[in-house]
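Q: I have 272 residues here and want to know how they pack in 3D. Can you give me a structure?
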Amino acid sequence: MQAAGYSRAMNTLESPTGPAPKGRRTIPLTEITLPHQCPRPVRLHVLARAPYFVGLDEAALDRIDRRMSTLTFAPDERIYRAGEPAEALYVVAEGRVKLSQDTAGGTETVTDLLVPGELFGAMSTLGEPHHHQTASALVGTCVLRIDQGDFRTVLAEQPRIALRVLDDVAARLSRAQSDIGSQSTATVEQRVASTLLRLADKLGEDRGRDGILLEVPLSRGDLAGLARSTPESVSRVMSRWKKEGLIDSGRRWTAVKDRGRLEDLSASEGLS
């Protein structure tokens, strides 16, 4: 569901502004501008998809919605920074959110991309008094924010949400331990293939012969962060795969052309 203020443009493989040269394919690219608001139908729709709130009736969702504030952010605008006090949870309502961390050298490393319905943020109630990552709008984005006090009230009113929160915290700890082991043994190709498949499942749009299109402005550095590798290594892998027809890419998009081959590469040498 798209709110007013979103527009659609055409982007070519080589030039996002000029007309496509004769014989060269064009791929539609959604240009998301800053929405003026997240109307109630949009808010309730995304709350119903958020993992903590799935299965709640409209009355319960409406009570939660009334405890939330609506915030909009321009592309690249910070929602919060790593190290700041963690006092709220957020739900992506429209757009895309990028989570990142800074390396010791000050370079930003992307750790995740979030789509409508996904939760992010932290609070001391969940054992995280400070944000460990920085959250930014990847494109024009609208988010819903619930403060710690209001969230505690929701937990008291809805015990099943409290159980889901406990399960989620346990699952995060388990994933963190699993990621340490898998990343230490996986090759660069495996990590990049797994990252592209994960993004295709989350963000992709099937365009038939054009492949599964990822309409997000991801740099090689962004992909390197997601794949826990270096931009140079990721660039070499992506360039080779582009020549071999596994993927295609432009300035603001990437397309998975041969999903089966990427799945084989991701699963090779024991990586699941």
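Q: Anything worth noting?
A: Residues 159-185 form the longest helix (27 residues). Residues 1-36 have pLDDT under 50 and may be disordered.
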